[in-house]
Write a structure and sequence with these properties.
296 residues; alpha/beta; single chain; globular; eight-stranded parallel sheet; 54% helix
Length: 296
């Protein structure tokens, strides 16, 4: 899955917009989405089958892409969360109607969830996600839950401020606990979209949690978190071949640099940006495929 549902971060971190975006800012965001989409199509048409290809795209700036994906029969997910918020909330109060109108393959929700965090915040987030989960189950819509587990200040202090060490030593335990708490609250995604791990054993523990209680058909996919290619490759190789790790959803690692060069006018035209995005996407397809074959 090629992920380009970024909204708030696209405006602030990528384009450097402060405050409300102008019409020109919005058009630049729409162009960015179209270029990423064209890169996806080029990579797919270069040998990837329809069954394995999917996109994660927003309604805000990607409505044109959504229409084309649906028309082409390509599976797609749309986000329902209000972009950039620390606590989960729906972007639109009409989210059930929008899901029914757009008919995505999956409704995707991003939540930042620390099992050791504020109990009131966690309770509110679980309740909102339960509402989404129930709606998807009732309407037979796929539900993708992106569970991010950020380090609390105390947890970060315990590993001397080393985020990499937190990822390696702590995050898997917290992720397992977070999955269990969601499940106990009645939140039942078909896919868990999770930050990557360095060791296959961590993926095995995560999958066991996600599939506990007879949830044998639930899958896990690895997200890119905007990390460099080397880090994402390690995560994919560690997860490849682990039963239950069914794919990945990578975004900024694939398209950030090509789009940055294009919008900066650094000698890159639209065709060049599309070509680089396609090559980066195809690279991760190949990395994942070769790693799975090797482990098999």
């Amino acid at each position: 899955m090629l992920a380009f549902d970024h909204r708030r971060s696209l405006m602030t971190s990528f384009f450097g917009v402060v405050g409300e975006p102008s019409e020109e800012d919005v058009e630049r965001a729409r162009l960015a989405k179209r270029l990423i989409w064209r890169g996806f199509l080029r990579a797919r048409d270069g040998g990837m089958g329809l069954r394995s290809a999917a996109v994660l795209i927003d309604v805000t700036y990607g409505d044109e892409v959504l229409r084309e994906a649906r028309s082409a029969g390509i599976r797609f997910a749309i986000p329902v969360e209000d972009s950039g918020r620390e606590e989960f909330g729906f972007e639109s109060p009409r989210w059930p109607d929008l899901l029914d109108e757009i008919e995505p393959t999956w409704a995707k929700a991003l939540v930042r969830y620390d099992p050791e965090g504020d109990p009131a915040v966690n309770t509110r987030q679980r309740a909102a996600l339960r509402e989404l989960s129930d709606h998807c189950r009732k309407t037979e819509r796929g539900f993708m839950l992106e569970l991010l587990v950020p380090p609390s200040p105390s947890r970060l202090d315990a590993v001397a401020g080393d985020r990499g060490r937190f990822d390696r030593e702590v995050r898997a335990d917290l992720t397992v606990r977070g999955i269990a708490e969601m499940q106990e609250a009645g939140v039942g995604p078909n896919l868990w979209k999770l930050e990557g791990f360095e060791q296959p054993a961590d993926y095995e523990r995560i999958v066991a949690a996600a599939r506990s209680g007879g949830r044998d058909r639930v899958g896990c996919i690895v997200l890119g978190r905007g990390e460099d290619a080397a880090a994402v490759e390690r995560w994919l190789r560690a997860g490849a071949g682990v039963n239950g790790v069914v794919g990945w959803a990578i975004g900024r690692t694939i398209w950030w640099d090509p789009l940055r060069a294009f919008f900066a006018g650094a000698g890159a035209d639209e065709a060049g940006a599309v070509t680089r995005i396609a090559a980066n996407y195809r690279h991760f397809v190949d990395v994942d495929g070769s790693a799975a074959a090797h482990r098999a």
